[in-house]
Specification:
Layout lengths: L6 H28 L2 H27 L1 H4 L3 H26 L4
Helix pairs in contact: 1-2, 2-4
Length: 101
């Protein structure tokens, strides 16, 4: 059963788990980029699944950035992650729409 995290807990969770989910997401994105057909679809779906929680937590953290009093480096890292995940999400949806392109 999932539980709700407070803003500081969410921030701690995000940066504690960031190396693992970045590695997982990047592996699936790179594999999807270099493959075709059902392999591309499978890795695109896996990348989207791997991004689901980080995207939600990242959006929450950016929404509450002022309340968390984030320093500029942390805020920039969160904004960069959000932009990268938006780009990856769009690319994975394109791969799912046409896995042979």
């Amino acid at each position: 059963m999932a539980r709700t995290l407070t803003s500081p807990e969410a921030l701690a969770w995000y940066f504690k788990h960031r190396p693992a989910f970045v590695k997982d997401i990047c592996w699936h994105v790179a594999t999807a980029r270099s493959q075709w057909g059902t392999t591309r679809q499978r890795h695109a779906e896996s990348a989207l699944d791997a991004m689901a929680d980080p995207v939600r937590v990242n959006a929450f953290l950016l929404q509450h950035a002022d309340a968390l009093a984030l320093d500029t480096t942390t805020r920039a890292a969160l904004e960069n992650d959000a932009a990268e995940m938006r780009a990856y999400t769009a690319r994975m949806h394109a791969y799912l729409a046409n896995p042979w392109a």
